[in-house]
Amino acid sequence: MRIYFTFEPRPDLRDPLVAEFPHVDFIFETGLSIDELQRADVLVTYGEDLNNENMNYATNLKWIFVASAGIEKMPAQAIMERNILVSNVRGIHKTPMAESMLAHILAIKRALPWIYEQQKKSEWSKKAKQSELRDSTALILGLGAIGSEVGRLLQAFGVTTIGCNRSGKEAAYMDNMVCFDQLMEALPKADIVISVLPKTDETTHLLKLEHFKVMKSNAIFMNFGRGNLVEEDTLNQAIQAGEFGYAVLDVFEQEPLAADHPLWSLPNVIVSPHISSHSSRYVERSLEIFKPSLEKWLRGEKDLDNVMDLSRGY
Length: 314
Fold this sequence. Notes:
Blueprint: E1 2-5, H1 11-20, E2 25-28, H2 34-39, E3 42-45, E4 63-66, H3 76-81, E5 85-88, H4 94-109, H5 112-120, E6 137-141, H6 145-156, E7 160-165, E8 176-179, H7 183-186, E9 192-195, H8 209-213, E10 220-223, H9 232-240, E11 246-249, E12 269-271, H10 282-298
Helix pairs in contact: 4-6
């Protein structure tokens, strides 16, 4: 059994992994090598180094473990044609991403960006426009591990949570539920609108200008899912027209965001360069998911955790 990592875990994470599975040949490299890809039975990757061309060399590959939640950059058709099983680290992002979202919300509510600017100017002023998070209402689009975790944290702050998914089916830490078709009725109630939706055909440009027009004028809009949720021209138009109060954006239709893009300079926009999931414990948590699946795989089992359906995109 030859397992090829296209990234190198820290020694304190790598060495225990090798010791725990002494009969496995582990190869650790930074970046993808065609020679190693040809020999690998299992590939462990962040999912951005595979393409249709190099998949032609993956003749022995039977399982791809993706140390990421999204697979939109992977050659899905080529993988499906070869009947390669794919699993990922779904759920790993819930702690850092929920903390990132909560940090941004509290920063806006308690006027921290303004306070930091005053400090730079050495200006003593008490004119901060501060408000409270308690008794707010949050509408959360996408109710997997991340959406449920941010719902749990917000409820602890006294926030009413409305969950939104395709079916409207009940989800953890949501006080009320709506489906996509009910967004126009739910958006006017929300002080905070958070999207953690995956990239699918159904979520592409789900939000249109009419949706932003019914939001509260002081609402906070946060996109931490995928940039396909809304066309950037539409989003920019809604912000410029003052349809809502603040935007916190971790994802964009085109990444990286161009240096001359107007979103960089708008005073009520926070650009987070797709880093809300980053954490010093990221690889540690990935391996906590990988190891039990590897044990199953070595026993000949295929019911691994987080097996993905590439035809659906998640």
